[in-house]
Amino acid sequence: MWGIIATWRMAVEGISEASHILENNGDAGDAIETAIQAVEDFEYYKSVGYGGLPNEEMEVELDAAYMDGDTLDIGAVAAIKDFANPVSIARRLSRERVNCMLVGEGAEKFAHKEGFERKNMLTSRAKIHYKNRLKEVQQQDIKPYSGHDTVGMVCLDTKGKMTSATSTSGLFMKKKGRVGDSPICGSGFYVDSQVGGASATGLGEDLMKGCISYEIVRLMKEGMHPQEACEKAVNELDKKLKARRGKAGDLSLIAMNNKGEWGVATNIEGFSFAVATASQPPIVYLTKVVDGRCIHEVASQEWLDQYMKTRMAPLEEK
Asked: Active site located where (predicted)?
Protein backbone atom coordinates (compact mmCIF):
# COMPACT_ATOMS: atom_id res chain seq x y z
CA MET A 1 0.00 0.00 0.00
CA TRP A 2 1.31 3.43 -0.95
CA GLY A 3 -0.03 6.79 -2.09
CA ILE A 4 0.77 10.38 -2.89
CA ILE A 5 -1.54 13.39 -3.23
CA ALA A 6 -0.67 16.91 -4.34
CA THR A 7 -2.21 20.32 -4.88
CA TRP A 8 -2.85 21.51 -8.44
CA ARG A 9 -2.53 19.99 -11.90
CA MET A 10 1.11 21.10 -12.05
CA ALA A 11 2.07 18.24 -9.71
CA VAL A 12 0.97 15.30 -11.86
CA GLU A 13 4.28 14.78 -13.66
CA GLY A 14 6.09 14.89 -10.33
CA ILE A 15 3.82 12.38 -8.63
CA SER A 16 4.17 10.14 -11.68
CA GLU A 17 7.93 10.08 -11.04
CA ALA A 18 7.30 9.50 -7.35
CA SER A 19 4.98 6.59 -8.15
CA HIS A 20 7.85 4.64 -9.68
CA ILE A 21 9.82 5.07 -6.46
CA LEU A 22 6.90 4.10 -4.24
CA GLU A 23 5.82 1.03 -6.23
CA ASN A 24 9.40 -0.27 -5.91
CA ASN A 25 9.23 0.05 -2.11
CA GLY A 26 11.14 3.34 -2.10
CA ASP A 27 11.22 5.87 0.71
CA ALA A 28 8.45 8.45 1.16
CA GLY A 29 11.06 11.15 1.67
CA ASP A 30 12.81 10.40 -1.61
CA ALA A 31 9.49 10.17 -3.43
CA ILE A 32 8.07 13.47 -2.22
CA GLU A 33 11.35 15.34 -2.79
CA THR A 34 11.53 13.98 -6.35
CA ALA A 35 7.92 14.96 -7.00
CA ILE A 36 8.32 18.52 -5.78
CA GLN A 37 11.63 19.00 -7.57
CA ALA A 38 9.83 18.24 -10.85
CA VAL A 39 7.48 21.16 -10.20
CA GLU A 40 10.26 23.47 -9.05
CA ASP A 41 12.31 22.80 -12.20
CA PHE A 42 9.55 23.46 -14.76
CA GLU A 43 9.74 27.15 -15.62
CA TYR A 44 6.21 27.42 -16.99
CA TYR A 45 4.70 26.85 -13.53
CA LYS A 46 4.93 30.44 -12.41
CA SER A 47 4.21 29.99 -8.71
CA VAL A 48 6.96 27.53 -7.75
CA GLY A 49 10.73 27.39 -8.11
CA TYR A 50 12.46 28.34 -11.35
CA GLY A 51 10.28 30.84 -13.17
CA GLY A 52 8.36 31.68 -9.99
CA LEU A 53 6.76 35.11 -9.89
CA PRO A 54 8.85 37.81 -8.19
CA ASN A 55 8.19 40.13 -5.28
CA GLU A 56 7.55 43.86 -5.73
CA GLU A 57 11.29 44.45 -6.16
CA MET A 58 11.44 41.86 -8.97
CA GLU A 59 13.30 39.32 -6.83
CA VAL A 60 12.26 35.67 -6.63
CA GLU A 61 12.05 34.71 -2.95
CA LEU A 62 11.15 31.08 -2.33
CA ASP A 63 9.64 29.22 0.62
CA ALA A 64 9.71 25.44 1.15
CA ALA A 65 9.29 22.86 3.88
CA TYR A 66 9.67 19.14 4.54
CA MET A 67 8.38 16.96 7.39
CA ASP A 68 9.07 13.33 8.31
CA GLY A 69 5.98 11.70 9.82
CA ASP A 70 7.97 8.97 11.59
CA THR A 71 10.29 11.24 13.57
CA LEU A 72 8.32 14.51 13.28
CA ASP A 73 11.53 16.12 12.03
CA ILE A 74 10.93 19.42 10.21
CA GLY A 75 13.04 21.53 7.90
CA ALA A 76 12.05 24.82 6.27
CA VAL A 77 13.45 27.75 4.35
CA ALA A 78 11.79 31.09 3.74
CA ALA A 79 12.59 34.08 1.51
CA ILE A 80 15.57 32.25 0.04
CA LYS A 81 16.98 33.59 -3.24
CA ASP A 82 19.17 32.21 -6.02
CA PHE A 83 19.06 28.51 -5.13
CA ALA A 84 17.39 25.76 -7.09
CA ASN A 85 15.15 23.18 -5.38
CA PRO A 86 14.45 24.79 -2.01
CA VAL A 87 12.55 21.63 -0.98
CA SER A 88 15.86 19.76 -0.97
CA ILE A 89 17.43 22.42 1.26
CA ALA A 90 14.43 22.09 3.59
CA ARG A 91 14.82 18.32 3.71
CA ARG A 92 18.50 18.67 4.55
CA LEU A 93 17.59 21.08 7.36
CA SER A 94 15.15 18.50 8.78
CA ARG A 95 18.16 16.47 9.86
CA GLU A 96 19.35 19.30 12.13
CA ARG A 97 18.48 19.08 15.83
CA VAL A 98 18.24 22.89 16.03
CA ASN A 99 18.43 25.67 13.42
CA CYS A 100 16.06 23.65 11.23
CA MET A 101 14.17 26.69 9.89
CA LEU A 102 16.28 29.34 8.20
CA VAL A 103 15.30 32.49 6.34
CA GLY A 104 16.85 34.86 3.82
CA GLU A 105 20.60 35.28 3.97
CA GLY A 106 20.95 32.63 6.67
CA ALA A 107 19.20 30.04 4.51
CA GLU A 108 21.38 31.01 1.55
CA LYS A 109 24.61 30.67 3.55
CA PHE A 110 23.56 27.23 4.75
CA ALA A 111 22.62 26.12 1.22
CA HIS A 112 25.96 27.33 -0.15
CA LYS A 113 27.91 25.58 2.61
CA GLU A 114 26.04 22.34 1.94
CA GLY A 115 26.82 22.48 -1.79
CA PHE A 116 23.36 23.18 -3.17
CA GLU A 117 23.12 24.59 -6.69
CA ARG A 118 23.18 28.35 -7.07
CA LYS A 119 20.83 29.49 -9.81
CA ASN A 120 19.23 32.72 -10.93
CA MET A 121 15.57 31.80 -10.47
CA LEU A 122 14.21 34.87 -12.27
CA THR A 123 13.35 33.97 -15.86
CA SER A 124 12.72 36.31 -18.78
CA ARG A 125 9.12 35.04 -18.81
CA ALA A 126 8.64 36.00 -15.16
CA LYS A 127 10.07 39.46 -15.91
CA ILE A 128 7.40 39.94 -18.58
CA HIS A 129 4.66 38.90 -16.13
CA TYR A 130 6.08 41.42 -13.64
CA LYS A 131 6.29 44.32 -16.10
CA ASN A 132 2.80 43.62 -17.44
CA ARG A 133 1.36 43.55 -13.94
CA LEU A 134 3.01 46.87 -13.10
CA LYS A 135 1.29 48.47 -16.10
CA GLU A 136 -2.06 46.86 -15.21
CA VAL A 137 -1.86 48.22 -11.67
CA GLN A 138 -1.08 51.70 -12.97
CA GLN A 139 -3.88 51.66 -15.55
CA GLN A 140 -6.60 49.89 -13.58
CA ASP A 141 -7.74 49.62 -9.99
CA ILE A 142 -6.57 46.04 -9.49
CA LYS A 143 -4.59 44.27 -6.82
CA PRO A 144 -1.09 43.17 -7.74
CA TYR A 145 -1.35 40.03 -5.67
CA SER A 146 -2.28 36.95 -7.65
CA GLY A 147 -0.67 33.66 -8.49
CA HIS A 148 -0.03 31.94 -5.19
CA ASP A 149 -0.48 28.30 -6.15
CA THR A 150 1.73 26.46 -3.66
CA VAL A 151 2.61 22.88 -4.49
CA GLY A 152 1.92 20.84 -1.37
CA MET A 153 2.06 17.06 -1.03
CA VAL A 154 1.48 14.19 1.36
CA CYS A 155 3.11 10.81 0.71
CA LEU A 156 2.80 7.28 2.15
CA ASP A 157 5.26 4.49 1.36
CA THR A 158 4.94 0.71 1.61
CA LYS A 159 6.64 0.67 5.02
CA GLY A 160 4.02 3.03 6.47
CA LYS A 161 6.28 6.07 6.57
CA MET A 162 4.57 9.34 5.69
CA THR A 163 5.99 12.70 4.63
CA SER A 164 4.66 16.13 3.74
CA ALA A 165 6.35 18.94 1.81
CA THR A 166 5.64 22.30 0.21
CA SER A 167 7.30 24.73 -2.21
CA THR A 168 6.22 28.15 -3.48
CA SER A 169 7.31 31.56 -4.68
CA GLY A 170 4.45 33.03 -2.64
CA LEU A 171 2.25 35.94 -3.55
CA PHE A 172 3.07 37.67 -6.82
CA MET A 173 4.57 41.12 -6.10
CA LYS A 174 4.61 40.47 -2.36
CA LYS A 175 6.59 42.69 0.00
CA LYS A 176 10.26 41.76 0.24
CA GLY A 177 10.65 39.23 3.04
CA ARG A 178 6.97 38.26 3.14
CA VAL A 179 6.40 34.68 4.25
CA GLY A 180 3.10 32.84 3.99
CA ASP A 181 1.86 29.57 5.45
CA SER A 182 3.86 27.21 3.24
CA PRO A 183 6.99 26.85 5.42
CA ILE A 184 5.06 27.14 8.70
CA CYS A 185 4.50 23.79 10.42
CA GLY A 186 0.86 23.12 11.21
CA SER A 187 -0.38 25.72 8.73
CA GLY A 188 1.08 24.90 5.31
CA PHE A 189 1.81 21.29 6.16
CA TYR A 190 1.74 18.62 8.88
CA VAL A 191 2.20 14.86 8.94
CA ASP A 192 2.25 12.07 11.52
CA SER A 193 2.83 8.54 10.21
CA GLN A 194 0.56 7.15 12.93
CA VAL A 195 -2.34 9.23 11.60
CA GLY A 196 -1.84 10.98 8.26
CA GLY A 197 -0.87 14.30 6.75
CA ALA A 198 -2.24 17.45 5.15
CA SER A 199 -1.01 20.38 3.06
CA ALA A 200 -2.46 23.73 2.08
CA THR A 201 -2.52 26.20 -0.79
CA GLY A 202 -4.20 29.57 -1.05
CA LEU A 203 -3.87 32.82 0.86
CA GLY A 204 -1.23 32.10 3.49
CA GLU A 205 -2.24 34.95 5.76
CA ASP A 206 -5.68 33.36 6.17
CA LEU A 207 -4.59 29.71 6.18
CA MET A 208 -2.28 30.50 9.12
CA LYS A 209 -5.20 31.83 11.14
CA GLY A 210 -6.55 28.30 11.46
CA CYS A 211 -3.37 26.19 11.79
CA ILE A 212 -5.40 24.23 9.32
CA SER A 213 -3.07 21.41 8.26
CA TYR A 214 -2.58 20.39 11.88
CA GLU A 215 -6.33 20.68 12.46
CA ILE A 216 -7.04 18.21 9.66
CA VAL A 217 -4.54 15.71 11.07
CA ARG A 218 -6.11 16.14 14.51
CA LEU A 219 -9.56 15.42 13.09
CA MET A 220 -8.24 12.32 11.30
CA LYS A 221 -6.71 11.15 14.60
CA GLU A 222 -10.21 11.37 16.10
CA GLY A 223 -11.37 8.92 13.45
CA MET A 224 -12.55 11.15 10.62
CA HIS A 225 -12.02 10.10 7.01
CA PRO A 226 -9.65 12.55 5.25
CA GLN A 227 -12.48 13.91 3.11
CA GLU A 228 -14.66 14.61 6.13
CA ALA A 229 -11.74 16.16 8.01
CA CYS A 230 -10.82 18.45 5.11
CA GLU A 231 -14.37 19.66 4.60
CA LYS A 232 -14.94 20.30 8.29
CA ALA A 233 -11.69 22.22 8.71
CA VAL A 234 -12.08 24.32 5.56
CA ASN A 235 -15.77 25.10 6.09
CA GLU A 236 -15.26 26.08 9.72
CA LEU A 237 -12.28 28.35 9.02
CA ASP A 238 -14.09 29.92 6.06
CA LYS A 239 -17.12 30.67 8.24
CA LYS A 240 -15.02 31.97 11.13
CA LEU A 241 -13.04 34.35 8.93
CA LYS A 242 -16.19 35.69 7.31
CA ALA A 243 -17.86 36.17 10.69
CA ARG A 244 -14.85 37.88 12.28
CA ARG A 245 -13.37 39.73 9.31
CA GLY A 246 -16.10 39.92 6.66
CA LYS A 247 -14.30 37.76 4.12
CA ALA A 248 -12.08 34.74 3.69
CA GLY A 249 -9.20 34.25 1.29
CA ASP A 250 -8.59 31.15 -0.82
CA LEU A 251 -8.40 27.98 1.30
CA SER A 252 -7.62 24.65 -0.37
CA LEU A 253 -6.41 21.54 1.46
CA ILE A 254 -5.33 18.03 0.54
CA ALA A 255 -4.93 15.13 2.97
CA MET A 256 -4.10 11.43 3.14
CA ASN A 257 -4.27 9.08 6.11
CA ASN A 258 -1.99 6.16 6.93
CA LYS A 259 -4.35 3.77 5.11
CA GLY A 260 -3.86 5.63 1.82
CA GLU A 261 -7.34 7.15 1.92
CA TRP A 262 -7.45 10.76 0.76
CA GLY A 263 -9.55 13.88 0.91
CA VAL A 264 -9.67 17.39 -0.55
CA ALA A 265 -11.64 20.52 0.29
CA THR A 266 -11.67 24.09 -0.98
CA ASN A 267 -13.66 27.32 -0.81
CA ILE A 268 -12.86 28.36 -4.40
CA GLU A 269 -13.93 27.37 -7.88
CA GLY A 270 -11.44 25.71 -10.18
CA PHE A 271 -9.23 23.90 -7.68
CA SER A 272 -7.33 20.94 -9.12
CA PHE A 273 -5.25 18.23 -7.49
CA ALA A 274 -3.47 15.02 -8.40
CA VAL A 275 -3.42 11.60 -6.74
CA ALA A 276 -1.66 8.29 -7.30
CA THR A 277 -1.99 5.14 -5.20
CA ALA A 278 -1.13 1.47 -5.45
CA SER A 279 -4.61 0.91 -6.89
CA GLN A 280 -4.85 3.90 -9.25
CA PRO A 281 -2.47 5.60 -11.69
CA PRO A 282 -1.78 9.35 -11.41
CA ILE A 283 -5.07 11.17 -11.98
CA VAL A 284 -5.92 14.88 -12.05
CA TYR A 285 -9.22 15.85 -10.44
CA LEU A 286 -11.22 19.07 -10.43
CA THR A 287 -13.17 20.00 -7.31
CA LYS A 288 -16.42 21.92 -7.17
CA VAL A 289 -18.35 22.91 -4.06
CA VAL A 290 -22.02 21.88 -3.94
CA ASP A 291 -24.03 22.74 -0.80
CA GLY A 292 -20.91 22.83 1.32
CA ARG A 293 -19.65 19.48 0.05
CA CYS A 294 -16.72 19.02 -2.30
CA ILE A 295 -17.31 16.92 -5.41
CA HIS A 296 -14.28 15.60 -7.28
CA GLU A 297 -14.42 14.89 -11.00
CA VAL A 298 -11.67 13.49 -13.22
CA ALA A 299 -10.29 16.26 -15.43
CA SER A 300 -11.09 15.82 -19.12
CA GLN A 301 -8.35 15.58 -21.71
CA GLU A 302 -9.63 18.82 -23.17
CA TRP A 303 -9.17 20.56 -19.81
CA LEU A 304 -5.69 19.09 -19.41
CA ASP A 305 -4.66 20.18 -22.89
CA GLN A 306 -5.97 23.71 -22.33
CA TYR A 307 -4.16 23.93 -19.01
CA MET A 308 -0.77 23.32 -20.59
CA LYS A 309 -1.56 25.45 -23.62
CA THR A 310 -2.39 28.41 -21.38
CA ARG A 311 0.72 28.07 -19.24
CA MET A 312 3.10 27.66 -22.16
CA ALA A 313 1.56 30.31 -24.42
CA PRO A 314 4.03 32.90 -25.72
CA LEU A 315 4.17 36.12 -23.73
CA GLU A 316 4.57 39.66 -24.97
CA GLU A 317 5.23 42.75 -22.93
CA LYS A 318 2.16 44.99 -23.00
From this structure: 150 (nucleophile)
